[in-house]
Write a structure and sequence with these properties.
262 residues; binds zinc ion
């Protein structure tokens, strides 16, 4: 049997945490069977760095375009204009709009602006026929309400680093979304294992959110894509299926969502 092929649907490989060993980090990921690494954008400052990674590993790294909610400030319309221009530019190819969403953990100053930026970018995703990658922090309920209220036809994507309960997971899946599962599922106190247990494997995608949120036993260290099999192993254990099954199903769905785009 061939080795399992894994996917990291969310890694910030272009951040400075990888400046010392980015090549090695990608080599380790490939050796671990992680064949696809999807790169969510943050804001106008990260685009060049992200594109550098994509040019270096075009078969492995797939970029997204979007404005992260924690980068939504007074000038957010300018930032959204940049996002719009890149999405329209035929010299670039983006596999999704992300990461976008609502973050009420760090700062609520721009809550209204965050909502507006989120809605504008959901419109862009629909216009370009692209999936979206949604970031929520202390905002699962409000984010779900915004999306259910829009009642968009054909909008698809993933709730990155899903942090809701089982009922919220069911609502996310109902509106056409996957649940992004990362290192948090290996943390003893997280409620994520209960969500993974309750939801079909077909609704889950694997992600690291590297360099953040490393799985056990790397807590407190830098996260990287080569740790994806640890997350997959935890999901396999919770669901009582094989590691190969988790790899196959999650990679199939990630490739369908971001690369094949029905
Ligand atoms: Zn992220």
């Amino acid at each position: 049997m061939s080795n399992p092929v894994f996917t990291d649907t969310h890694a910030h490989l272009y951040l400075e945490e990888f400046d010392a060993d980015r090549d090695q980090a990608v080599s380790r990921a490939l050796e671990a069977g992680v064949k696809y690494i999807f790169l969510p954008n943050i804001d106008s400052k990260s685009i060049g760095l992200m594109q550098d990674a994509v040019c270096r590993w075009p078969q492995v790294c797939f970029p997204m375009m979007g404005l992260h909610p924690t980068s939504v400030k007074a000038n957010f319309i300018e930032e959204i204009t940049t996002v719009k221009q890149y999405l329209a530019d035929k010299n670039y190819h983006f596999c999704g709009v992300g990461e976008i969403g609502i973050d009420l953990y760090w700062d609520r100053t721009y809550e209204k602006e965050q909502e507006e930026a989120f809605n504008l970018q959901l419109d862009l995703a629909l216009g370009h026929g692209l999936p979206v990658v949604i970031h929520t922090r202390n905002s699962m309920e409000v984010t779900l309400e915004i999306m259910e209220g829009r009642n968009d036809k054909g909008l698809r994507g993933v709730f990155h680093c899903f942090s809701g309960d089982v009922a919220q997971a069911e609502r996310a899946v109902k509106i056409g979304f996957y649940l992004g599962i990362g290192g948090v599922v290996t943390y003893k106190k997280s409620g994520l294992a209960a969500v993974v247990a309750a939801m079909p494997t077909e609704t889950l995608l694997l992600e690291t959110d590297a360099p953040f949120l490393p799985p056990v036993p790397y807590r407190g260290k830098r996260n990287e894509s080569s740790y994806i099999p640890l997350i997959a192993a935890k999901i396999a254990e919770i669901k009582g299926v094989s590691l190969e099954e988790v790899a196959r199903v999650t990679t199939d769905h990630a490739v369908k969502l971001f690369i094949e785009k029905p």
